[in-house]
Amino acid sequence: MLNVAYLEKIIHQTSKEKLSCKVDKLGASSQRKTYSCEYEGVKYKVRECFSENDAKDIERRILDVCHLDLFPTYLGRSKEWIFFEYLDFPEAKRNESNIFWHNLGYSIAKLETIAPDKIDVGFGIEKSPVLKKHLNIYLHECVNQLQKSGYLQRNEMLKIQESFNYFLNQNPQSCYSYLDLLPGNIMTDNEKIIFVDEEGLAGSFQGMSLIRALDIWKSPSPPQGLTLNEKEELFEGYQKGGSDCEFFEKNELHLGIIYYLIKSSDSVQCSGTTNKSIKQLYSKLRLL
């Protein structure tokens, strides 16, 4: 960790640098601004969060899991700024080896060994986490918001509520997840997996990390996920790492509904509209 005085000097240098593009090796995927900066011969990744509280929230998650060595080294925080080592390894590709899928599943399982205090419900906006026992209330709020915004009919609302009530009544294990498991958010150092988008780290439930990759790893539009062989390798590594594939397979549909419900609501709150996430939600509802 670097001291605050040194971090302030890096911030001063960062203000002179060109803003990194939103989709790049730095894992910049929301309206939080991400910079690459070189100071005294060392490159850094610097994230400007929405607020100091937002930065503290991301810092909380990173510190909870940093001992797992799955993310770039965290270097510290100054107000709304957070700092990481800058990495320049290859990004994961749409088509990867069997070893990659096995290691990815194993890495997700490692992440799931850490239990958070709360469930994180913000994606691209600043949102306070909620207690697990209050998540049902928050999900109902998401349903009502999407209904009022014209995205859900009454029968769809009832299906969603039935789905997440069934899931939560099982008292599922809360754990840390990586909720944006896509090629641009992962680097590989030989066979080592590195998650480079700290925004994707969230308190959630066992198996939630897998939803996005299974749905759209190959292509977001039209949606195309993993092949059968890739899934088998992913699940083998996931199970070997200590996670419960049987639980995931039983609850995959319910996890997907919760994921896209929260993500759709987040999009509406952020921009007033939602497109791809709500379409994924509709597709899950048709399977109920």
Description of the structure:
- The structure is a single chain.
- This protein has 288 residues and is an alpha+beta fold.
- The chain folds into two domains: 4-85, Phosphorylase Kinase, domain 1; 98-285, Alpha-Beta Complex (Aminoglycoside 3'-phosphotransferase, Chain: A, domain 2).
- Helix content is 43%, strand content 16%.
- The chain contains nine helices and ten strands.
- It has helices at residues 4-14, 52-65, 98-111, 135-148, 154-168, 210-216, 228-240, 245-271, 276-285; strands at 33-39, 42-48, 74-78, 81-85, 174-178, 186-189, 192-195, 201-205, 219-220, 223-224.
- The strands form four sheets. Strands 1-2-4-3 form a four-stranded antiparallel β-sheet, with helices on both faces. Strands 5-8 form a two-stranded antiparallel sheet.
- A hairpin with a 2-residue loop joins β1 (33-39) and β2.
- α3 packs across α7, α4 crosses α8 (245-271) and α5 (154-168) packs across α8.
- The longest helix has 27 residues, at 245-271.
- The protein is globular.
